[in-house]
Predict the 3D structure of the following.
Amino acid sequence: METPLPSKPSLDLDPRASETLKWSAIGNVLGNLVEAILVYIGAQIFVSELANDLSGFDEYGPLSNIPFGLFVRNAVWAAVFGAVIGFLISKFYGQLQKWNRQFLQGRLKNFFALMFYPSLVISLIGFLGFNAYPFYFGVMAFVVGLAGIFLRSYLYAYIMTRKVGTLYPPPF
């Protein structure tokens, strides 16, 4: 008698995967925009104070220098990455639960925690590891950037929990 092969997650877009993909993309875009706005404001205010130069706030006000094109590009990429992350969450949720039990001793006890903490850690690694932000903009702008990362992760986890959290069984 032949033993059956272990079942692999399907790459089909079932209703749960579709909803998770959609809300993950939306949550990631909204969180990314909040973070980008805070980082921009922090850089504008604190760099201007440090340089004793208000060139970022010219006669048309601070809105005249906002890099809208950069925000739009970031939003598009945030939607793409959010959709991919949502798809991976929907297809590998069981594996995420297993890793939570195996490596974290089940510390991520609900869906919100399962979305918030990994998002926060990944964002912090990206911010701290690939960014010379504190060297260019100073400590206070860096703190505002960290607040933006925290709010981004919180908003993402909140949206995911509210919109698709009921589609996923509790981790235990």
